TrEMBL record:
GO biological process: response to hydroperoxide
Organism for this UniProt entry: Cocleimonas flava
CC annotations in GO: cytosol
Pfam families documented for this protein: H2O2_YaaD (PF03883)
Coiled coil: none
Domain of life: Bacteria
Family label: Belongs to the UPF0246 family.
Sequence segments annotated as region (Disordered): 1-22
Biased composition (Polar residues): 1-20
Signal sequence region: none
InterPro entries: YaaA
Name under which the protein is recorded: UPF0246 protein EV695_1166
Length: 260
């Protein structure tokens, strides 16, 4: 099994990584092509393209200019520890030992607009380039056209040698649209999280994001190799909901927490 997650807009490049393990992204040559285009953008261009404030656009223009292929632990950080947000708050990565991280390297992939399919300990430099961004590039008008089949091919390589060729999709729709199911060499099992209140069960984004991280953490910590075993997930009151689930889309639900 492999797991796919989305990246996060929030990033932390200040806190030290509690491990010396690090690797380089496999698709850096592709990243360089995107950076070449991004470096042509002005602050006004970035603000319009990404619908962000002037401060954020200025920050990302500088990030694009600073980006270079000489990745090291001084100018880059392992992706699992660099991303910061609701999803990543659900992963207790600070307590992972080297065996945990090695297992994660083989079973977790983070889908990135700039880097393609990242392993958790792949070094990344600061960036913001969401998969939905309509950045014109040598392969088309947006990042979905740019990546084409490349992310799926990378996932196929990751599926080779797995106990079961199953992809556990914990990524958002925006990012998983970069995967081509027709050429994926394995089964796709999407997992969703819902809250129940007043007899209605629905997805609430802020809860679902953290739950995706908790599920990834559960799979990695328990070295789960068979999809059926993830039905034992029970963090924060979630339980497998057979009534809401289908063969290829499993739902975990719980009573909606009261507002604090």
């Amino acid at each position: 099994m492999i797991i796919t997650l989305s990246p996060s807009k929030g990033q932390d490049f200040e806190t030290p990584t509690p491990s010396d393990i690090h690797t380089l992204p496999d698709q850096l040559a592709d990243s360089q092509l995107l950076i070449n285009e991004a470096k042509k953008l002005s602050s006004e261009d970035v603000s319009e393209l990404m619908d962000v404030s002037e401060n954020i656009s200025n920050l990302n223009v500088q990030r694009f200019q600073d980006w270079n292929r000489d990745f090291n632990t001084q100018n880059a950080k392992a992706a699992l520890f660099a991303f910061k947000g609701d999803v990543y708050s659900g992963i207790q990565k600070e307590s992972y030992n080297d065996d945990d991280l090695a297992y994660a390297q083989n079973h977790l992939r983070i889908l990135s607009g700039l880097y393609g399919a990242l392993r958790p300990m792949d070094l990344i430099q600061p960036y913001r380039l969401e998969m939905k961004t309509r950045l014109k590039n040598p392969r088309g008008d947006n990042l979905y056209q740019f990546w084409g089949d490349k992310i799926t091919q990378q996932l196929n390589e990751s599926l080779e040698g797995q106990t079961e060729k199953v992809l556990i999709n914990l990524a958002s729709n925006e990012y998983f649209k970069s995967v081509k199911p027709k050429i994926l060499d394995g089964k796709i099992l999407s997992v969703n999280f819902k809250e129940t209140k007043d007899g209605k069960t629905r997805v609430i984004a802020i809860f679902a994001k953290k739950a995706r991280g908790m599920m990834a953490d559960f799979i990695l910590r328990n070295r789960i190799e068979h999809p059926e075993d993830i039905k034992d997930f029970g963090s924060d009151g979630y339980k497998f909901d057979a009534k809401e689930s289908t063969d290829n889309n499993w739902v975990f639900s719980r009573p909606q927490p009261a507002k604090k």
